[in-house]
């Protein structure tokens, strides 16, 4: 009898201890859940939990990013409805990799669809976890649409700057060419004037020799004519060169309307 009472007391003590342990575990779990919610509710990033193809938890920031109220998402929407069609295969595969434990953590970007159908660019950090004995995905996400737009604007400005620099280099090279041509023109004009005077003297000398050597033989006369011809050619070249380097005043001229 005493042994039976003793065993009953021990069993009762064990039941109480087991009950206390369950109560402590429940209190610990509740405390952890409250800490998680307190942290996530005021977070500046979106926080989510996905299990069985549905969002089981989202914080206010996550709902705000996609333009929904929290209660419109939790246990009602699947990730598929928040992802652009073209990006869904990537998101689906990444979710599967985490749920199957093929890849415990992952970081990637995708294009999301807000409630108002606006497209947003999302950056995701996600990991595998276990909730109530079943695999789930927990993670954070950021709306990086403005950042991406800024990056694209920087790329556009860099491309525009590169084009302007190329145009500036081309303009500079053109100015250098024109400056060289101007210097060449000035030099040609100076040389032309310097050459015209002695050639004129040589032409007069040939004329004088012809007048004086009236009885010269045919060969002498032929060579005098050759010299005179070459002097005339040289003078024409100099005249053309001076005309090329000389800046002329634009001349207005009426043209038919068809032109």
Summary keywords:
259 residues; 6 helices; 5 strands; 17% strand
Task: Tell me briefly what this model is.
By secondary structure, this protein is α+β, with helices and mostly antiparallel strands. The protein has six helices and five strands; from the N terminus they run H-E-E-H-H-H-E-E-E-H-H. The termini are far apart.
Protein described:
This protein has helices spanning 2-41, 60-65, 70-73, 88-99, 145-212, 218-245; strands at residues 46-51, 54-58, 105-113, 119-131, 134-143. The protein starts with a helix and ends in a 14-residue tail after the last helix. Helix 5 (145-212) runs antiparallel to helix 6. A 5-stranded antiparallel sheet has the order 2-1-5-4-3, with helices on both faces. The mean pLDDT is 81. The protein has 259 residues and is α+β, with helices and mostly antiparallel strands. It is rod-shaped and about 170 Å long.
Ordered list of secondary-structure elements with their pairings:
Elements: H1 2-41, E1 46-51, E2 54-58, H2 60-65, H3 70-73, H4 88-99, E3 105-113, E4 119-131, E5 134-143, H5 145-212, H6 218-245
Helix pairs in contact: 5-6
> What summary fits the major beta sheet?
5 strands, antiparallel
- Please give the count of helices: 6
In total, how many beta strands? 5
Beta-strand content: 15-25%
The portion of residues assigned to helices is 55-70%
Q: How much is the average pLDDT? A: 81
Distance between the termini: 130 Å
In spatial order, strands of the major sheet run 2-1-5-4-3
Which residue ranges are poorly predicted, with pLDDT under 50 across at least 5 consecutive positions?
none
| SSE sequence, one letter per element | HEEHHHEEEHH
Shape: rod-shaped
- Rounded radius of gyration (Å): 48 Å
Helix-strand category: alpha+beta
